[in-house]
Design brief:
The chain is of the alpha+beta class. It contains 6 helices and 8 strands; from the N terminus they run H-E-E-H-E-E-H-E-H-E-H-E-E-H.
């Protein structure tokens, strides 16, 4: 591994080589709230395959991309090495079929408790009454639990936002609503008590999601309404901005 980080342009020129990978799992039959068949756990990654090391130039190019902060993880597919540069994971709820929304959320880790305010028994299909209009586009609620991008890809004009937008085209195809809880998850454990830093970095994360058409709902929850054009318009602007590299 090299200690020399690749240049900004070198990373951007690699965009057209990225692949989006998706994994998901749902139970066939429910035995408890956690495995309700109307819930789908999913994860997706943006992966950069390195060149086949056939010559010195390919080896040198690969070495540059193995620099610090370029990937979240490195794996091998046969002889070919691959770098994960962005990962996103979450949960999809089918409101038409789900039996107990709160139990399904509560049975998972504490992160999912943040999303309880999206739901209210008084609303159609258990969705909060302030969000009922979203049901015109589907009956699925997509919850984004975690989204991370490798440090070297930050500050490049919206690469992370572009990738999230492309992923959501597949993950949220039938969604009535997409929700996330913007929080700076990369703050070191020993700095969790630094409220000033937390507030500052949380504001930055919230602005990122806002630029993708998400808006504040309540209790630090941000939502995107797929039946409106704000999200699609934002992704189209990003695609235009990165057009020369795609």
């Amino acid at each position: 591994m090299t200690d020399v980080a690749p240049e900004r342009v070198e990373l951007l020129m690699s965009l057209n080589r990225l692949e989006l990978r998706f994994d998901s799992a749902a139970s066939l039959v429910a035995s408890d709230a956690h495995d309700d068949p109307a819930t789908l756990e999913w994860g997706c990654r943006a992966v950069l395959p390195l060149w086949e090391p056939d010559d010195e130039k390919a080896v040198a190019d690969n070495a540059r991309l193995l620099g610090p902060g370029v990937s979240l993880a490195q794996t091998f597919q046969g002889q070919r090495q691959e770098l994960t540069i962005l990962s996103m994971s979450g949960l999809t709820l089918d409101l038409w079929r789900i039996g107990h929304i709160y139990a399904s959320l509560d049975s998972r880790d504490a992160d999912y408790e943040h999303f309880a305010p999206l739901f209210d028994k008084s609303g159609d299909l258990g969705l909060h009454s302030d969000l009922e209009e979203c049901l015109v586009s589907g009956t699925h609620v997509v919850i984004i639990d975690r989204a991370r991008i490798a440090p070297a890809w930050r500050g490049l004009g919206g690469v992370g936002r572009l990738l999230i937008g492309r992923m959501l085209r597949w993950v949220a195809g039938r969604a009535a609503l997409v929700a996330t809880h913007p929080y700076p998850i990369d703050i070191p454990v020993d700095e969790w008590d630094d409220r000033t830093r937390e507030t500052r970095e949380k504001t930055v994360v919230q602005r990122t999601w806002q630029s993708l058409g998400f808006e504040s709902f309540r209790e630090d929850l941000w939502v995107m309404r797929p039946h409106l054009s704000a999200h699609d318009d934002a992704v189209e602007r990003l695609e235009t901005a990165f057009g020369r590299y795609l």
